[in-house]
Amino acid sequence: MSKLPEKYRFLDLSDYGRSPARWIANSVKGTNVSPIQVTSWFIISGFIAIVCILYNYYFAAAFFLIFKSILDAADGELARIKNIPSYVGRYYDSIADIVLNFMFLITIWFITDGSILFMLLAFVGIQLQGTLYNYYYVILRNNVNGDKTSRVFEDVAPKAFEGESQTTVNIFYKIYDILYIAFDKTIYLLDRDAINSKPFPKWFMTLLSTFGLGFQLLLMALMLILNLEQYIIPFFIIYSSLIFVFIGIRRVLLR
Length: 255
Hints:
Layout: H1 18-28, H2 35-54, H3 58-81, H4 87-112, H5 116-143, H6 166-190, H7 202-208, H8 213-225, H9 229-239, H10 242-253
């Protein structure tokens, strides 16, 4: 089930795991497995990838990075198939993503004996990339009556869905807000008028999807397989400069 009406669907290069994710979701839809449990599975996959990196099992690490990305899509698919939207699940997913991203990079820093400052710059760059992609994607979904589980402005805790505890939603929202507020506010300040744009064209969203977490993990996996682990952190620092290119395109061409 797509997050966008058919007219606005684009080739999402970060969403290569969607087909196996749907297969996983359909395989467990008749069971008691919940979307939050699937999110927990991708956390486990991420930790296994970290252990593999530490022991130089790079092919295995690449597999578990990609598998993490697939499971990251499967939890949302399962929620839509079972028609059980959840703000707790949405925030749990995002919290897990940012924590794992940091741990992936600090693991790469550890095995390459690089600069901790560069590692932190790469982390900030990766998070800003993902935030820009999500910002534009959520704006698009909201403007064309697509999936609305994610909000353009996560400035207050949302009202819990039926079956959720408002207290739990509030707690997860607060954790999410602490972890993401700096990145969200930075991207908003860089392009606060994006919300007033007409729907973004498919070519723009496809190019922007290279900032999606799935594509970031794919690049990381490929570089590990090619024994280019020492270039992962510098690459993501340099690649983050394209943030300003995409914002410039949006502001000049897609107003």
